[in-house]
Design goal:
Blueprint: E1 6-9, E2 12-16, E3 20-22, E4 24-28, E5 31-36, H1 38-42, E6 50-53, E7 58-61, E8 63-68, H2 70-76, E9 80-81, H3 91-103, E10 111-116, H4 129-135, E11 141-145, E12 150-153, H5 155-160, E13 173-178, E14 181-188, H6 191-195, H7 203-218, E15 222-230, H8 236-248, E16 254-260, H9 267-272, E17 280-281, E18 284-292, H10 323-335, E19 339-344, H11 347-360, E20 373-376, H12 382-391, E21 394-396, H13 399-413, H14 415-419, H15 424-429, H16 447-456, H17 473-479, H18 482-487, E22 505-508, H19 517-522, E23 526-531, E24 534-538, H20 542-547
Parallel strand pairs: 1-6, 2-7, 8-15, 9-10, 10-11, 15-16, 16-18, 18-19, 19-20, 20-21
Antiparallel strand pairs: 1-4, 2-3, 4-5, 7-22, 11-12, 12-14, 13-14, 17-18, 22-23, 23-24
Length: 548
């Protein structure tokens, strides 16, 4: 009989949606050896077996953030933090933080910030270039709205990017002007003009960002992620950074690489260099190709069939590409063998993308079985959902968008469209693999806010958005574990705690299946994380202390 390396006792083990709960679990060789009763698992213990005392806590499969930006999250940790939950509730506070950052830099060095939400500011508007100029007169400044699809720059940054009063908005983007003057606000493809003018991070900085963000994810119970646009910030250097940390064994989490394939991306270059579907280096796996279809509903740039209710009465958002261009990209990357992971939030963008994937279907290159994905997929119609189910095209949503932006959706789009957004219940009932995710650094990575919203459909202000789309806690954890594994072709290895699967486990501070749901929103954290049976995060150092 195989002896267990580690056993988990004295709590509950959530094995999976279909499997339910067990009393105890045994690990051997990095995999789940057995789950069962305390007596059954005790029979597998030996003199060298490590015992993890759950002390009434619950263990679940390691969480999987199926759409986030790991490397950009690491870089953002070194930027000016402008998120609302960090106390940024006014333009004055934004300017204060920008001014403080500028004082710590030499003249001419860039000040970069991220995370403000104009809807959460007292002024309920974006800062302007002139205001940023006053805060940092000697430095180029670039701050991004939380969605990452809208940003504001100051005069020095506009000059560095070559943007003048007569510079036209690029296709798929916006350079905002009011009274024939630049406001500093840029949207979608126009933001690339600034990104390309900024100094690129060094290879060392890219590697450090990956490792820092990866360890942060482990601390929240995540053992797997998808980096949803590798190459968007620093081109092929990002793949070099990932490869180096993976070969060195310092990549903290299992990472499904989604390559940035826009017109300014690295799709063809990466393919030519051999970074293709199925390639693996340590914990790193390649499979998906990202193309942006539109923007964000909060930023008024998601492409909608009906106008927004605020701002320009004719605004229906922004298409990044024409139908012909988008369909060409989809057919091209589909034929190259990549899983498609296409950003589309508004129903008009979803239609463009869905039609393009359907058009790419052929006898030689069928779409069935390819697990193509529509990322976000926030405001789709019932007919579009049915077509996705028929074609095996999965949505990869962010329930956290409801938590953080749901009230803004009501303002921007009205109650009916807001209630129908991100329909987790409909997707699950239709058999679609709607894998939960955060889109970090767009939203906070906190999985417990995400779980809370899947179960309650409440925003952070406790507005209920589409209550009929609620899931049970078990279904919500399922969306955050096995469904993520499925979208990454890993369901045979990850997402459940059953014999033979990798022992990726999160031990939570509370039993989220029995405590009041408001406890899940505000009080739960991850105490222990195991990756392949090895303890990689120990919040209280309890196991290290027990070994002494």
């Amino acid at each position: 009989m195989t002896q267990a390396d580690t056993v988990l006792l004295n709590g509950r083990i959530f094995c999976g949606l279909a499997e339910g709960f067990a009393e105890a679990l045994a690990i051997a060789g990095g995999k789940v050896l057995a789950v069962g009763s305390v007596d059954e698992i005790a029979a597998l213990q030996g003199a060298g077996t490590k015992v993890v005392d759950l002390a009434g806590r619950v263990a679940i499969p390691g969480l999987n953030d199926a759409h986030m930006h790991l490397l950009p999250l690491g870089l953002a940790m070194g930027e000016v933090n402008l998120r609302p939950e960090e106390g940024v509730a006014s333009i004055d506070e934004i300017l204060r933080r920008v001014a403080m950052a500028a004082k710590a830099r030499k003249p001419g060095e860039w000040v970069i910030g991220r995370g403000y939400d104009h809807n959460e500011l007292a002024e309920r508007r974006h800062p302007t270039a002139e205001e940023l100029d006053r805060a940092a007169p000697d430095n180029p400044v670039y701050i991004k709205r939380t969605c990452g699809h809208v940003g504001v720059v100051n005069g020095r940054a506009l000059q560095a990017a070559g943007i003048g009063h007569n510079t036209p908005s690029p296709a798929g983007g916006l350079i905002e002007r009011r009274d024939n003057r630049l406001t500093g606000l840029l949207a979608e493809s126009a933001m690339r003009l600034v990104v390309e003018a900024m100094p690129a991070p060094s290879l060392a900085e890219l590697k450090a960002a990956i490792v820092k963000a990866g360890h942060y994810m482990l601390s929240q119970g995540f053992t797997s992620v998808m980096d949803a646009a590798v190459g968007m910030t620093a081109g092929m250097a990002e793949i070099d950074a990932y490869e180096e940390v993976a070969r060195a064994g310092t990549l903290p989490v299992r990472t499904w690489v989604c390559i940035y394939g826009n017109a300014d991306g690295i799709g063809d270059e990466a393919h030519a260099a051999g970074y293709r579907f199925g390639r693996e280096t340590g914990l790193l796996r390649y499979g998906a190709m990202k193309v942006f279809g539109d923007g964000s509903a909060g930023g008024l740039t998601a492409a909608m069939s009906e106008p927004y209710l605020v701002g320009d009465p004719d605004n229906r958002g922004i298409f990044i590409y024409s139908d012909a261009q988008m369909h060409g990209y989809l057919a091209h990357f589909h034929e190259l063998g990549y899983q498609l992971a296409i950003h589309a939030i508004g129903d008009a963008a979803i239609e463009q993308v869905l039609a393009g994937i359907e058009k790419a279907d052929s006898a030689e290159h069928p779409i069935k079985g390819r697990r193509h994905r529509i990322e976000h997929c926030g405001f789709l119609t019932e007919a579009q959902l049915a077509r996705m189910a028929a074609a095996g095209i999965d949505p990869v949503p962010q329930p956290a968008f409801i938590y953080e932006f749901g009230d803004l959706y009501v303002t921007n789009l009205g109650r009916q469209r807001a209630d129908a957004s991100y329909p987790m219940r409909k997707w699950l009932d239709a058999g679609l693999h709607a894998a939960a995710s955060s889109d970090a650094p767009v939203c906070a990575t906190d999985p417990f806010k995400n779980l809370f919203t899947m179960v309650t459909r409440e925003t952070k202000r406790h507005t209920v958005i589409g209550g009929g789309e609620r899931l049970s806690m078990a279904e919500a954890v399922h969306a955050y574990t096995l469904l993520g594994a499925y979208t990454q072709f890993a369901e045979d290895k990850l997402g459940r705690l059953v014999p033979g699967q990798l022992a990726d486990i999160a031990v939570l501070s509370h039993d989220i299946f029995s405590v009041p749901v408001e406890t899940v929103e505000n009080a739960v954290c991850c105490d222990l994380t195991l990756l392949g049976g090895e303890i990689v995060f120990d919040r209280h150092g309890q196991l290290a202390a027990a070994a002494q």
